[in-house]
């Protein structure tokens, strides 16, 4: 038995995957409205009233739990599950509203011998899997660049808490940052700059970011983002033979050496048909006995705090 905590949009995507995999699962939601919607739409059983109400019934421990609640609720929800005795949990990125929550959760999980993993589903995109295969054939990444510009006008109007928006780099932009270093290699050192203070009401501490450095494998990298200007998420990886571009991230394009043309790469999208990209392979990798090494452990996220702090505040990062 698998528990799925949450009944919102992300939980709905997980329901599609779990049904496709013929996994026996129970959904536990908080909102009666969302629970009824999901139950009717997907023809499944949904327990409303929240996790505490569910645990008060003293259900038998599940094989594993997937936590797909709002970022604000990730810490408390996962803490309750660990206290109850759950031993294997996959929680939506980034694992907490800030690194204080993530660190506390990691310490508690370690003390209770609970294995907690972070769900960065873009690591499992068909486009990413194909790019990693081709990059390895090319001999590895020599340099890369990524952009994590956010659409500030849209974010300002989202029904998200001010606390979530204040931590938007970790809560949302980390999708791009994590994927860039997942493919290109972890940073050894880099110089970071930030500015644009008070430009955005929902994120007054900064709005513009840029930096450059080198990875542990010797690849050079740079990044930029301007949340007060047009832009979009994108990643580019250079090898001796090709330039691989994710723009949008679900699609892989390639530019061959001595060419100005970009061509879309044919990837195996069979596991993404009618499902949220990357989610099926991610869930499969989590549920197997030996969890896929591509899925990040909570402790690894804790060790990335200095990277995100340097990008957010500027300065020099040294591993």
Describe this structure in a few short sentences.
With 319 residues, the protein is α/β, with parallel strands linked by helices. Helix content is 36%, strand content 24%.
Structure notes:
With 319 residues, this protein is an alpha/beta fold. The protein folds into two domains: 2-120, NAD(P)-binding Rossmann-like Domain (Rossmann fold, 3-Layer(aba) Sandwich), CATH 3.40.50; 122-318, 2-Layer Sandwich (Dihydrodipicolinate Reductase, domain 2), CATH 3.30.360.10. Helix content is 36%, strand content 24%. It is built from twelve helices and 16 strands. The protein has helices at residues 9-20, 32-42, 51-55, 74-84, 99-111, 126-138, 152-156, 162-166, 168-184, 279-287, 298-302, 305-313, and strands at 2-5, 25-28, 46-47, 64-67, 88-92, 115-119, 143-148, 187-195, 208-215, 220-226, 233-238, 242-246, 252-256, 263-264, 296-297, 315-318. The strands form two sheets. The protein has a nine-stranded mixed sheet, with helices on one face. Strands 3-2-1-4-5-6-15 form a seven-stranded mixed sheet, sandwiched between helices. The longest helix has 17 residues, at 168-184. The chain is globular and about 65 Å long. It starts with a strand and ends with a strand. 41% of the residues are buried. The mean pLDDT is 96.
């Amino acid at each position: 038995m698998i528990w799925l905590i949450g009944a919102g949009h992300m939980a709905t995507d997980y329901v599609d995957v779990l049904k496709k995999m013929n996994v026996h699962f129970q959904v536990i939601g908080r909102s009666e409205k969302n629970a009824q919607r999901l139950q009717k739409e997907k023809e499944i059983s949904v327990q409303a009233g929240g996790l505490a109400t569910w645990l008060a019934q003293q259900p038998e421990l599940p094989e594993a739990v997937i936590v797909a609640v709002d970022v604000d609720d990730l810490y408390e929800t996962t803490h309750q599950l660990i206290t109850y005795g759950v031993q294997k949990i996959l929680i939506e990125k980034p694992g907490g509203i800030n690194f204080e929550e993530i660190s506390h959760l990691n310490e508690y999980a370690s003390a209770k011998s609970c294995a907690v993993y972070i769900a960065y589903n873009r690591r499992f995109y068909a486009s990413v899997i194909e790019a990693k295969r081709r990059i390895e054939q090319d001999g590895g990444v020599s340099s890369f660049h990524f952009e994590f510009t956010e659409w500030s006008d849209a974010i300002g109007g989202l029904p998200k808490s001010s606390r979530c928006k204040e931590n938007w780099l970790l809560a949302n932009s980390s999708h791009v940052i994590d994927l860039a270093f997942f493919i290109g290699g972890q940073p050894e050192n880099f110089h970071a700059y930030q500015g644009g203070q008070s430009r955005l009401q929902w994120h007054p501490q900064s709005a513009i970011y840029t930096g450059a450095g080198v990875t542990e494998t010797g690849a050079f990298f740079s990044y930029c983002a301007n949340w007060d200007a047009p832009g979009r998420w994108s990643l580019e990886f250079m090898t001796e033979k090709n330039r691989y571009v994710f723009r949008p991230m679900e699609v892989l394009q390639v530019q061959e050496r001595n060419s100005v043309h970009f061509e879309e790469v044919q990837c195996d999208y069979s596991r993404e048909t009618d499902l949220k990209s990357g989610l099926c392979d991610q869930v499969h990798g989590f549920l197997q006995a030996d969890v896929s090494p591509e899925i990040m452990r909570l402790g690894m996220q804790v060790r990335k705090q200095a990277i995100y702090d340097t990008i957010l505040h500027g300065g020099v990062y040294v591993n």
